[in-house]
């Protein structure tokens, strides 16, 4: 929450399954496009919030399966758990607040009387969330009777139906919308209200997000009927909400452009940076761009005669490989030259996460970021620091001076020599 000194330029609050993550996109291209854009242009002054129905357990599983960035804030279990930062520090005040008029035992007693309700797995039952599966045709009736019964027993609950299968029972004050309203209030008290907030979703439990005052909203093209219906009944005339024509993360990028919330061209959509007319002089963009080039180099998506690596590296620079071995940068360039196309036709991908830039001299920047690579079942990551210098003679303006990498816990390959940088 305190990563930024001032107000966030943009705060994105996005659902994960079928919003940020497209489970039908095997190559995760939509997500990788979003990631490159976020790290190049937004990470420095904006906030990324994931708001998911998943419990922390299966949220962490998704993070291992998909190239997800690290959010600043994670809201899990349909707005009943809020956690901050990479170390995911719980907001205990929020959980205290949800205890009001909530009694989990009564909820389980009452729901047990409904044979139409099939309990979800143990991981998805949380202190302030009791979850079931129920068939679509039975859902409306069950919801009506169940809420009457719970009300009679003195509970203030909220019943949410999502994905045409899942029914969540939560305290009245919980839910994705309430959790967001709570966060916004906290920002306001700190004098750090985000300049713009964009909420993104696809299903029933996201509907509340679109009801939070003064936010922009995007329902991705693949949004579920229940969300579209909620919108038709409650927010049809709100010009700040769109139904994107693009799926999932691509729909989020589309909304950023539609509402003019900032840059909306992913570096991944720029085929040739040398021909790119837009003047981008930004150290974070430089990092994203280099690794994109490197991925394309190994996938043979750029021609072998491109000389970029020689140009951007300082000839006398050093590189500390994550194994601890120090090498001259020139050696790495030679190796890289030989690796052109070695991953051609494969699923080899690279992305960077949590890129930060600190100016340490009049023309020097210290960059810090997590660099990830996936190839088949393998996934490896390094904490990377790079010293960037600026030089007028170099076309894109930056020279990579020194670089240092260390393995992220448990992510080193068996054979460390397979990792270049
Ligand atoms: C996620 C959760 C599940 C919940 C559903 C809808 O799939 O794992 O427990 O019911 O979202 O909110
Ligand atoms: Mg979803």
From TrEMBL:
Does the keyword Hydrolase feature in the UniProt annotation? yes
Residue span, Sucrose-phosphatase C-terminal domain: 284-409
Which cofactors does this protein require?
Mg(2+)
InterPro entries, sorted: HAD-like_sf, HAD-SF_hydro_IIB, HAD_sf, NTF2-like_dom_sf, SPP-like_dom, SPP_C, Sucrose_Phosphatase, Sucrose_phosphatase_pln/cyn
Query: According to the UniProt entry, what is the EC number of this protein?
Result: 3.1.3.24
The pathway that the record names for this protein is: Glycan biosynthesis; sucrose biosynthesis; sucrose from D-fructose 6-phosphate and UDP-alpha-D-glucose: step 2/2
Enumerate the CDD domains for this protein.
Answer: HAD_SPP (cd02605)
Which chemical reaction does it catalyze? sucrose 6(F)-phosphate + H2O = sucrose + phosphate
What residues does the Sucrose phosphatase-like domain cover?
Answer: 9-259
State the UniProt keywords alphabetically.
Hydrolase, Magnesium
Q: How does it assemble?
A: Homodimer.
The UniProt function text for this chain reads: Catalyzes the final step of sucrose synthesis.
Which family does the record assign?
Belongs to the sucrose phosphatase family.
Q: What is this protein called?
A: Sucrose-phosphatase
Which organism's genome codes for this protein?
A: Salix suchowensis
Q: What is the lineage of its organism?
A: Eukaryota, Viridiplantae, Streptophyta, Embryophyta, Tracheophyta
């Amino acid at each position: 929450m305190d990563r930024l000194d001032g107000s966030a330029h943009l705060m994105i609050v996005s659902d994960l399954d079928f919003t940020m993550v497209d489970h039908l996109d095997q190559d995760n291209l939509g997500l990788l496009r979003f990631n490159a854009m976020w790290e190049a242009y937004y990470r420095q002054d904006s906030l990324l919030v994931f708001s998911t129905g998943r419990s922390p357990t299966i949220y962490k599983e998704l993070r291992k399966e998909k190239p997800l960035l690290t959010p600043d804030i994670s809201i899990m279990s349909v707005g009943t758990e809020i956690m901050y930062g990479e170390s995911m520090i719980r907001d205990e005040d929020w959980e205290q607040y949800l205890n009001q008029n909530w009694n989990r035992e009564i909820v389980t007693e009452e729901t047990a009387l409904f044979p139409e309700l099939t309990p979800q797995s143990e991981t998805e039952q949380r202190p302030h969330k009791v979850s079931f599966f129920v068939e679509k045709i039975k859902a409306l009736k069950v919801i009506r009777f169940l809420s009457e019964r719970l009300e009679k027993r003195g509970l203030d609950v909220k019943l949410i139906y999502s994905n045409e299968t899942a029914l969540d029972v939560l305290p009245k004050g919980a839910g994705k919308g309430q959790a967001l309203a709570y966060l916004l209030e906290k920002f306001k008290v700190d004098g750090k209200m985000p300049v713009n907030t964009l909420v993104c979703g696809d299903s029933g439990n996201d509907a509340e997000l679109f009801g939070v005052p003064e936010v922009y909203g995007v329902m991705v093209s693949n949004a579920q009927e229940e969300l579209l219906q909620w919108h038709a009944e409650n927010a049809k005339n709100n010009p700040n909400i769109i139904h994107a024509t693009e799926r999932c993360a691509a729909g989020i990028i589309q909304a950023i452009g539609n509402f003019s919330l900032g840059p909306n061209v992913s570096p991944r959509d720029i085929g040739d940076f040398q021909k790119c007319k837009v003047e981008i002089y930004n150290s974070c963009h430089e990092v994203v761009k280099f690794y994109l080039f490197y991925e394309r180099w190994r996938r043979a998506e750029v021609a072998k005669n491109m000389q970029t690596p020689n140009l951007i590296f300082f000839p006398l620079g050093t590189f500390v490989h994550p194994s601890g071995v120090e090498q001259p940068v020139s050696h790495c360039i030679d190796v890289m030259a030989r690796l052109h196309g070695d991953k051609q036709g494969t699923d080899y991908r690279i992305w960077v996460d949590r890129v930060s830039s600190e100016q340490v001299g009049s023309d020097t920047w210290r960059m810090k970021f997590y660099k990830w690579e996936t190839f088949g079942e393998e996934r490896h990551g390094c904490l990377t620091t790079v010293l960037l210098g600026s030089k007028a003679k170099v076309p894109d303006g930056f020279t990579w001076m020194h670089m240092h990498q260390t393995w992220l816990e448990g992510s080193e390959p068996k054979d460390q020599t397979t990792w270049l940088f």
